[in-house]
Amino acid sequence: MADVLLSSIVGGGGEKTPATVVGLLESEQFSQIITPHISNIGVSVVFSGALTANTYKNVASVAAPGRLLFAAAYRNNTTSRSVGLRITLNGVVFYDVFDSANTSIGRGPVGAGFISASGISMSNYHFNTLSVDIKSSLTETDSIRYAVVYTLDQ
Amino acid sequence: MAEHYEDIIHKGRVVGRRLVVDEVPDVAVQTRIARDDFIERFTPREWLAGQKLAQTDANLAMALAILMGKPDGMVDPSSQRVARALGIMVQLGVLTPARAAAIGAV
Fold first, then answer.
1. Buried-most residue among A87, A113, A114, B57 (CB within 10 A)?
2. Which one, of A148, A154, A153, A151, lies nearest residue A43 by Cα?
3. What's residue B66's pLDDT?
């Protein structure tokens, strides 16, 4: 008889949160232009506010169980810079990327979810706590935008 | 732009926070807001007769939108309605014929 996990009987209990993701954009790699994909699905995007060069700024932190569906950050003008995105699930850094400097508007890292031809595909990462941080290689204001989509459990 | 953190409330309690940055509306939205403000303060006849509008493109867009009764504050420079609206504004003395011609619709 095959092993049966207790979580499969209880239903939802004991679901594991991923510790890391492999195969997405890595630091110092050239990120994709993602704004058309984000626009296609109508995700709310927010300016970064004031950023200090090479310093992460928290843009969302949640301490309640839920699911992370999408998280990304991207350039809002043509000044050359690197854009960083860090996602922490249950206190463990799940994704931390600082992309290659470039000047393309709309280019930036995606740490949860995937861009596709017609928009994006959602991830479904369970968390008990979530933290999302962004950074720029420059000290600047509102030159980066970000989008974070998550659900909270009932 | 003003930035601040907004509480994330779930099941009646604060479970986190998220960054919120108030955006400056784009030109179309600014024009609409300004147009609505004009409508509240003056009737079209008052501000056209009194030339309360500066002759900037943004304000012209407002004037045209009001004359045309378009709700979104946007104008299509190629439309005949714009040409008619510009003609009315020339007759009212809000625009000089040269200025109206420069806009390209008369």
1. A113
2. A148
3. 59
Ordered by start, the domain boundaries in chain A are: 25-152
**A130 contacts on B by Cβ (under 8 Å):** 16
User: Which 3 state secondary structure label does DSSP give A139?
Assistant: coil
For residue B59, the surrounding DSSP H or E stretch is: helix B57-68
Contact present, A151 and B11 (Cβ < 8 Å): no
In this predicted complex, what is the ipTM?
Answer: 0.79
Between B85 and A79, the more confident residue is A79
**A112 beta partners:** A71
d(CA B94, CA A132): 53
CA distance B19 to chain A (A): 5
Across the interface, which of B11, B18, B21 has its CB nearest the CB of A47? B21
Q: Is B33 on the interface with A (CB under 8 A)?
A: no
Which of A109, A152, A104 lies closest to A130, judged by CA? A152
CATH of domain A25-152: 2.60.120
Give the single-character DSSP code of B75. Answer: -
